[in-house]
């Protein structure tokens, strides 16, 4: 699988939802959310193609600057737990599509220019779609020893996410877009 094919799959995943009723399915009829449809369709690829997809997926999932992305997610949603960041935000960045993803990697504040101001990151729990598709295809867990598979690293610092002053200085464009949500409310996650 090439990187272009990887991005084609990412950018056309929403078409799968439209086609889902016409596809033979591995899933029960009540499992028709976007994540399940993505898993189901990814599982139609060969084992080698899924492993190749996994390499591209994890390479990109771990590519954006972690602290900036986490701070942006925290600002947008008024909170972002570890689980939310790993399961929703990191994959959500990739699911923005190639152009938006590359813009985000260069400048996380590009999220402020999206139609929903960055809430596009929170599309669903896509953190385990690749391993689920692999398991559906093969009946086995995704191997831990896939060559070149990136792993999450500890963040190289800390941001005091609850500090609105620090967030406004770090992410002025996103702060301008979301500051009205930061009144007296407490974080949601």
Written account of the structure:
By secondary structure, this protein is mainly alpha-helical. It has one domain (3-22, 33-182). It has 10 helices and no strands. The protein is elongated, with a radius of gyration of 17 Å.
Pairing-aware structural class of the strands and helices?
Answer: mainly alpha
Extended strand count: 0
- Kindly, what is the distance between the CA atoms of the first and last residues, rounded to a whole number of angstroms? 37 Å
Strand content: under 5%
Radius of gyration: 17 Å
CA-based shape: elongated
Task: List its traits.
189 residues, mainly alpha, 52% helix, elongated
In short:
With 189 residues, the chain is mostly helical.
Map the helices and strands.
Blueprint lengths: L2 H9 L1 H7 L14 H9 L4 H15 L4 H12 L4 H14 L2 H9 L22 H10 L25 H7 L1 H7 L11
Helix pairs in contact: 2-3, 3-8, 4-8, 9-10
